[in-house]
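Section 3.1 - Work completed
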Amino acid sequence: MARTVRAYCITAESVARERERVGDDLEHVDVSRVIELDKLELRDVGPNDVHMRILAASAEHNVDHAALADTVNIAELRGGRMYPGNSALGEVIEVGDRVERFKPGDIVITHCNGEPDPFGFPLRIWAYDQPESTGWYGEEAVVGDWQLLHAPLDCGLNLWEIAALPLRAPTAYHLWRRALGIFRIKVPRERMATLNVLGFGGGVSELFLMLAKSEGHEAFFCSGSADRRAALEKLGITGIDQRAFNRFATDDDVKAFRRQVRDLTDGRDMHIVCDMLRGPVFPAGLAVAAREGVNISAGWQLSQVLEYNSALLSVKQVTLDHTHYETIAGCEAATELYGKVFKPTVHREIYPFEELGRAFQEMHRNEQTGIPIIRVADDLPASVAHLVGDER
């Protein structure tokens, strides 16, 4: 029997209405006006499906892109209405008669590999550009059993930290194994064991640097958030204040950044750069690239189109690499590192479900001290009660 639940949606109409209100000035868009609480009718549970209750979800930047329609108008392309949310933690309520991996009461996390290609990498992302996909910013969901992993409740993280990772951890894991693999094709470990690794951005870059640090490399985090830099400095990751360089607004700012990086690295520069922002950050990342370096990204928060000097990068043997989300097997592997390597910084406030729009607006304004988490369920199962702690 079909069941109707509350779920957030983005419509082409709400996007157009907000863009008209601000005269297409995306700097002044209020994302909370675009993401609307709606009703969603869940499909019936099929033989390979899992019906779950969403306990918590993390806010993701792809939703910001959907609300702004700054890359493509994905809500319009999805028929005028989409239900976002591709990172969540939930409790299994019911399973189809062919499901063997899960049972009612299990705590699970999602992955957003919407449609694997022949090698396992996603052609599309669930609840974004995958046709007919509905996301997990809702009270409940029905998903295929292949879309879920068991949540590692004994990993040492609290519930909100676990909820921060289903999208970010696999992305960081993919970025790191790709970047390191490319660098090692050029420079084997016996020629250079310890690398300098730089990250720009938020949660994914933080996790990327945790991987680098866990393998013995020198890690550096360039961010304008003092809170986030301080959290990583506790893990031995050197913080660099991006605001000190005017967020690389001019060539002189980039040159000043390059001088500081040379000082910090004794002239060795950065062997691997993870740039999850692009825009003005891109030339800064290239400026500090060491010979044989790798500049890697899985995002375009500030821009999609980039310019660079191909001849110069060729002479320096610098590789640019662009990735997307992980394979399902890669998601499983990344989950094994929860608590051991991945120790995410969570924003000081846990948002109630009814204020999800505010969470996204504050993310859009870059006001948060860590990864934003939305608590969806008021009542949590006994199996996770000990993982809640202080909701701040």
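Second construct:
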Amino acid sequence: MNKRVREILDFYRSENPGVLTNLARMLNHGRLAGTGMFVILPVDQGFEHGPARSFAPNPPAYDPRYHFALACEAGCNAYAAPLGFLEAGVADFAGEIPLILKLNNHDLLLNEHDPAPAVTASVKDALRLGCGAVGFTIYPVYEQLREIAEEAKARGLAVVVWSYPRGSGISHEGETALDVVAYAAQIAAQLGANIVKVKLPSAHLEQPEAQKAYEANHVPLEPLAARVRHVVQSCFDGRRIVIFSGGAKEDDATLLDEVRAIRQGGGFGSIIGRNTFQRPRAQALELLRQVMAIYAS
């Protein structure tokens, strides 16, 4: 284990050896092994957005095994998915890549102003499937997270929190506002997340009182790398792993510019789903190769 990995694990000295071991497995796996950087493949979009919206652009992606193979061949640090997708492919890829079981999900069949995710899997499921971590989304409604995180860590599993502000109390633009994303990241860290997943922040400021603080203290809003740096700073001054979502599919140049900004801003990497599995396999692998090359530089 190299110096950088030990340095990151030192951020989590209060955790038990099981959690530290599973964090180390992700840090030491794939093309970015030992760099302290992450590229994780998440495939919860079939549940969250629906199958056609998620997989029709690249029909082989309807098969859960496709994503295991993509994550393994690309050299990702880990693969994250809901219960059904992991159960459908884990036997064919046992031990080949660290797994993250998403324990809650939200669907779009019910029109609602405030997201109401349901718990769709358990810590016992994660252990049964050989996972090294569990994932949980907060909006930031988080009443269930504390109990689940406590159980997961007691069993030696790391906790990854998707912290996505959303609902009737926030504007659509505010979902990615810098002050809101930084606040969401802080909440996830305060709730005990080992890895915090947030969206890339825009230069918009949503909360009037926060805007006053940003202006008075000259917190930079540009460029993107500066916003990334602020979000990382908001997670205990960089003492928690913060990774950024890839979002909806976009062109290669835009995505790679965002990756460079994450690297320059001190982020720990990306969790990229639709921008990979909605491309043909060869294109996805090449894009991931370029992403990892930037993070490894």
